[in-house]
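Milestone 3.1: sequence recovery, worked example.
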């Protein structure tokens, strides 16, 4: 049987869950992790430089460690050749299972190579630090995904255990605590939920944080029992139509309440198809129409997913997965989002609107991780598919998100064209709810070419509309642009006030788009570097932590650049590692200037 290698926590080798003789050297563990987690095959000379630079015979030391690993892993054919690679068929590693979403919750949570700290290996240390950050973020995402799936399937005990592990990984994560509280309440442990909420409030207060209203409501929001009666299925269908109509008319509160009643009736009807449709509508409404309700919406959408699978409704299943991916992207859970989108693509078939939506979210997900060339191609495909399908809203959305990637990749003229086309389509459809986003991006494109007055007009219109809509992220994006324009016009103090206000507006909701929050933080850093050098380090530290928690490698690299430029030269190598694969010429220029 293939031996199982655990790199999370204290590294060890197991055979039938029994420990095996470990490798003799710590650097053997380091070499194994480096090869296993490399995106491509890695050469022996590179490994020798990273791990054995001070050895008399670095390549000989690599050969010794490889032999040490083959002995411990029981695989004489492993890790041969140059460059080196490992494949899942050769070995089982917990880090691979975590990335694939197959690692059980009880095995999730340890640090990569816990206890393995090497001396005089700065290049490896930089890699290890970033790898640990990524796997910690992936662990939190996976515990959340498993808890939601188990909760939706009715396995409350396992859901509570997974959510509890997630809540302990980051006690200050409002969303993780909310999910744990929901599981406790559904499990009938309301008293324990109240105690946990009190502990959260105490901890948050000590850190200067305020728990969200969603966190507090989760400790008492038990599902209402279904009302007795007959013809529940017919009632549910009627309520679904009424609730959807109310939402279209802008009566959000009435629409949500009607859909909640529809969900109760659908559950009473024991009709999986009706239940799937109703829960999808309710979950989508909570995500898109109610501020601060993304987390509850995700719970409902997981229930819709289970019902859709039971009823064989592949289109509903694909749409629920797409919505869940959107929630994950907004919150910075990019690996979880990618999993959901891959599954949604498989289920979507040839339905063009659904495929356009999935392509668009795949582009958004890639863009948030700084992969702007890949993102641009996906978003072009999405916009064209949506245009062909007659889905104007999706076309406008994809073009707007495309403008962002083009702008950050340095293609200013193309970014302006995409933003203008997005604005044209959105105005034609009277889709004001989205309009501020492409308006801000057109303003940025205009500013890049020196059209400051036009840029200011666009930014002002975007801000006014965003405030009318009450959208925190749109307000933040527009206020950020107005702040930068004020600084450029010579009003530095006013610009700084705009940027502070932009951050406050964006972060006032717990389920805000984390990318926008980081984008504002980067603007604050850029202004501080020119005007208030003493603020650079605290602002860079804040962006650094935000980027780690939300899996935003582009902003992580930027935070490291500013830390290195402000005197912390140890961050230069980390910045180079973090910037690998990111398509942002301005960032790459700054990174390489450090070395």
């Amino acid at each position: 049987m293939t031996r199982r290698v655990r790199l999370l926590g204290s590294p060890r080798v197991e055979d039938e869950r029994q420990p095996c003789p470990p490798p003799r050297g710590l650097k053997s563990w380091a070499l194994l992790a480096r090869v296993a987690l490399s995106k491509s095959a890695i050469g022996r000379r590179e490994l020798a430089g990273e791990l054995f630079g001070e050895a008399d015979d670095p390549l000989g030391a690599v050969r010794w460690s490889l032999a040490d690993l083959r002995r411990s892993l029981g695989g004489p054919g492993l890790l041969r050749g140059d460059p080196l690679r490992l494949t899942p068929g050769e070995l089982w590693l917990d880090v691979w299972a975590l990335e694939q979403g197959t690692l059980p919750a009880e095995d999730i949570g340890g640090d990569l190579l816990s206890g393995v700290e090497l001396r005089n290996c700065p290049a490896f240390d930089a890699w290890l630090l970033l790898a640990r950050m990524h796997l910690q973020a992936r662990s939190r995402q996976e515990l959340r995904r498993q808890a939601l799936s188990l909760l939706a399937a009715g396995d409350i005990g396992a859901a509570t255990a997974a959510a509890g592990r997630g809540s302990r990984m980051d006690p200050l994560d409002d969303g993780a605590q909310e999910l744990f509280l929901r599981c406790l309440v559904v499990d009938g442990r309301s008293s324990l939920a109240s105690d946990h909420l009190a502990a959260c409030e105490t901890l948050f207060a000590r850190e200067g944080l305020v728990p969200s209203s969603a966190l507090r409501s989760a400790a008492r929001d038990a599902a209402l029992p279904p009302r007795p009666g007959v013809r529940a299925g017919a009632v549910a269908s009627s309520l679904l139509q009424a609730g959807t109509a109310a939402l279209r008319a802008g009566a959000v509160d009435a629409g949500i309440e009607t859909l909640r009643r529809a969900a109760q009736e659908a559950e009473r009807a024991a009709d999986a198809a009706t239940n799937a449709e109703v829960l999808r509508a309710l979950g989508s409404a909570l995500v898109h129409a109610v501020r601060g309700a993304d987390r509850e919406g995700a719970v409902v959408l997981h229930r819709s997913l289970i019902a859709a699978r039971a009823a064989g409704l592949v289109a509903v299943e694909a749409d629920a997965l797409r919505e869940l991916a959107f929630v994950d992207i907004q919150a910075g859970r990019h690996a979880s989002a990618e999993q959901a989108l891959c599954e949604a693509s498989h289920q979507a078939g040839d339905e063009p609107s659904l495929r356009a939506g999935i392509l668009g979210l795949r582009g958004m997900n890639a863009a948030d991780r700084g992969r702007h060339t890949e993102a641009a191609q996906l978003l072009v495909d999405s916009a064209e598919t949506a245009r062909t399908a007659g889905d104007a809203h999706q076309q406008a959305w994809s073009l707007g998100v495309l403008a962002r990637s083009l702008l950050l990749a340095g293609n200013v003229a193309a970014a302006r064209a995409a933003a203008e086309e997005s604005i044209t389509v959105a105005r034609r459809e009277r889709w004001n709810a989205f309009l501020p986003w492409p308006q801000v991006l057109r303003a940025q494109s205009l500013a890049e070419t020196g059209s400051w007055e036009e840029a200011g007009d666009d930014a002002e219109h975007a801000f006014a509309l965003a405030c009318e809509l009450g959208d925190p992220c749109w307000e933040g994006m527009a206020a950020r642009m107005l702040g930068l324009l004020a600084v450029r016009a010579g009003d530095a103090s006013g610009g700084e006030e705009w940027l502070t206000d932009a951050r406050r507006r964006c972060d006032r909701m717990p389920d805000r788009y984390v990318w926008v929050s980081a984008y504002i933080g980067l603007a604050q850093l850029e202004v501080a570097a020119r005007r208030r050098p003493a603020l650079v380090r605290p602002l860079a530290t804040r962006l650094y932590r935000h980027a780690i928690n939300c899996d935003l490698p582009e902003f992580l690299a930027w935070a490291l650049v500013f830390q290195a430029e402000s005197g912390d030269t140890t961050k230069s190598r980390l910045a180079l590692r973090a910037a690998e694969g990111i398509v942002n010429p301005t960032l790459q220029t700054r990174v390489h200037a450090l070395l």
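Residues 134 and 181 are 26 Å apart (CA to CA). DSSP finds 28 helices and four strands in the chain.
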